[in-house]
């Protein structure tokens, strides 16, 4: 669990340092959107496989 906290902390600090840069904001939003899309596909698959 410590590594996950460290990753989120690093992401947060980097985002806060570079939040004025539009490219960073768009990259962050794109990453979140892709993660949500793939998570949705996986959850649909898990529901379909469920007996």
Name the features.
about 50 residues, mainly alpha, about 85% helix, elongated
Architecture overview:
The protein has 51 residues and is mostly helical. It has two helices and no strands. The termini are far apart. The model has no long low-confidence stretch (mean pLDDT 89).
Average pLDDT for all residues: 89
* Estimated structural class: mainly alpha
Detail the poorly predicted runs. none
User: Number of DSSP strands?
Assistant: 0
Percentage beta strand? under 5%
End-to-end distance, in Å? 32 Å
Rg measurement, Å: 15 Å
Order of helices and strands: HH
Q: Write down the overall geometry.
A: elongated
Helix content: over 70%
Number of helices: 2
Task: Summarize the helices and strands and which ones pair or pack.
Layout: H1 2-17, H2 22-49
Summarize the structure.
The chain contains two helices and no strands. By secondary structure, the chain is mainly alpha-helical. The mean pLDDT is 89.
